[in-house]
Amino acid sequence: MKIGKLSNSLLESIIIEPINKNSVDRKEVLLKPSIGEDCAALDLGENICLLSTDPITGAIEDIGKLAININANDIASSGGEPIGIMVTALLPQSITEKEIAKIIEDLYSEARKIDIAILGGHTEITDAVNKPILSCTVIGKTKKLISSGGAKAGDSVIMTKYAGLEGTAIFASDKAYLLKNVDKRILEKAKTFGENLSVIKEGEVAVKAGANAMHDVTEGGILGACWEIANCSGLGIEIEVEKIPILKETRVICDELKVNPLKLISSGSMLIACRDYKKMLCELEKAGIFATKIGIMTESGRYVIEKGKKYILSEPDVDELYKV
Fold this sequence. Notes:
Shape: globular
CATH superfamily of the largest domain: PurM-like C-terminal domain
Helix content: 25-40%
Structural class: alpha+beta
CATH architecture of the largest domain: Alpha-Beta Complex
Oligomer: single chain
Largest sheet: 7 strands, mixed
CATH topology of the largest domain: Phosphoribosyl-aminoimidazole Synthetase, Chain A, domain 2
Strand order of the largest sheet: 8-10-7-11-9-12-13
């Protein structure tokens, strides 16, 4: 099978559908498993408890930082505040004590930045992996749940930051040997993109500014996330490709590696569906967050518009990261 997440059709047919059909029904469960939903949600009385889990498998450098941000972003994208995280570290026999210490330092340093507690986990040396793998489960809380499936026809689609931030940072850090023709200054700048992967701040702003749906952009890139938010909401979507912001460093590195930055893992960017896009952009700007309106939710049909022509927006395939 292909490396990366299962295709959405396969995920639906052999994972999600059987689970939802055979799982125990509990009145506390507000959100069941669904393609594109960032979190599970439980009604626990005064607060809604949010839970999410994600591994880091496509990177080597800075995996501790990535693990904290990628998981906390799921909570933020559901309108919540991340509280704590549990980390399972599966490590190869070749790893050194110094390398383990660096992973742990990255975990607690990044967790302190966003005020999230490390609650525990599991650490194991195993011949089942040939590089470090971190798998995390994060817990958060909210008073108001914002799901990926809450968009309404006519909502504007807002994107924060830039396409391909996470993938660009991973390429610059882990695949530099493939980028001999790229200026070193571009590579050094690209490595810093890993400092901008949190979407907690935009999540807080977007909830107050009237977001109907939010979705953080991970595997499958910005186009994949657009398909997922439409799929979750049971709607169509139209995205104007020329309006999607891409930094110079991302373009140069992706051109060199012959990958599409719009289909590249993009943690650090959030999709927001809202009615009043001018208010949303204004509030995000006040908070120092760069954001752009890139499209609109429609009743049906999922399309990208490029140079005046309309093309079908297909469901996400294997992320560009795994093609390198």
